[in-house]
Specification:
Layout (H helix, E strand, L loop, with lengths): L8 H5 L5 E4 L2 H13 L5 E4 L12 E6 L9 H11 E9 L2 E2 H8 L19 E2 L1 H11 L23 H4 L2
Parallel strand pairs: 1-2, 3-4, 5-6
């Protein structure tokens, strides 16, 4: 989900070879426009995240920022991401924390509970233990889980919990 290249164009500017994937051709077109305006070159490809059109071990790293939270079937995406990264390479991605959400609400919350309203599907939350279990099942080694951003939304305000976020 390269979108308009917010995370990728700085990598290109540092001399990295970047291939950006997005399901939206409009996003890829805007990303290319911004890249060309800066004199940068990157490859873009329309694709879905769970079926990438690349050979196994094609990339040194896969970086996905503010994307995985849009996909309730994230457990099917991780093995595909692993497939396209060379052995010893890195997957770097972010998720919204179900653990923080549970702590803020003061009650147990299942991952599926977040899928019950249309608005919540855009802020899927994943518990650290579930992410670690899935990584283990896929044969991935987790180097770090690093909390960042705002307590509940990481900059993406959850309007369903406005009162809670304001505290």
């Amino acid at each position: 989900g390269i979108g308009t290249g917010r995370g990728s164009l700085p990598l290109c500017a540092r001399g990295q070879r970047v291939t950006g994937v997005d399901s939206s051709q409009a996003m890829l077109d805007e990303c290319q426009r911004l890249a060309h305006a800066q004199g940068l070159v990157l490859r873009t490809q329309t694709s879905q995240l769970d079926c990438l059109p690349f050979a196994a071990a094609s990339f040194d790293s896969l970086i996905s920022l503010n994307v995985l939270m849009h996909f309730p079937h994230w457990r099917q995406i991780l093995p595909e991401w692993k497939r396209v990264v060379r052995p010893g390479g890195r997957l770097i991605f972010d998720v919204h924390s179900l653990d923080h959400y549970r702590a803020a609400l003061g009650r147990p919350v299942a991952e599926e509970e977040g899928l019950q309203s249309e608005a919540a599907t855009y802020t899927l939350r994943i518990a650290a233990e579930d992410l670690l279990a899935e990584a283990d099942r896929c044969g991935l080694s987790v180097r770090a889980l690093i909390p960042y951003g705002a307590f509940l939304g990481g900059g993406n305000r959850n309007y369903l919990l406005g009162e809670l976020e304001d505290k």
